[in-house]
UniProtKB/TrEMBL annotation:
Name used for this protein in its record: DUF3168 domain-containing protein
Species of origin: Burkholderia theae
Organism domain of life: Bacteria
InterPro entries with a match to the protein in the record: UCP019853 (IPR016767)
């Protein structure tokens, strides 16, 4: 669980929300919210990466963590340091597949393209 500031709430897509987590701003897909979410408010959330196909993690030549949105979609290229089952891209994303399928990349900068970043409001 982390705290996130709601910067924007989607107008055209009801599930779209832009969050600020630390110094990072990210457009997310709201998978679950037990209450109405309001711009300018801070909420406890969990975030996760969503893949519609296979997860394809690869070593990256980039030395800085980043989250780069692909167009105006929910998709992102996530680049960060992989430590066991966590990619630290300014926001930490945990997934067991990172360790079980890509453990050999632990300790290295990696990149992965995700279909969306999901958020659940707690």
């Amino acid at each position: 669980m982390i705290n996130a500031l709601v910067e924007e709430v989607g107008v055209n897509v009801e599930e779209e929300v832009t969050l600020r987590i630390g110094d990072v701003s990210v457009v997310c897909f709201t998978g679950y919210s037990p209450y109405p979410v309001e711009k300018g408010e801070t909420y406890p959330v969990t975030i996760s990466l969503s893949f519609f196909g296979d997860c394809e993690l690869m070593e990256s030549a980039d030395s800085q963590p980043s989250l780069r949105q692909i167009g105006n979609s929910f998709a992102y290229v996530v680049t960060g340091l992989l430590c066991d089952d966590v990619i630290d891209a300014g926001i930490k994303f945990q997934d067991e597949a990172f360790l079980s399928d890509f453990g050999y990349l632990s300790g290295k900068m990696v990149s992965v393209t995700v279909d969306r970043i999901d958020v659940e409001f707690l």
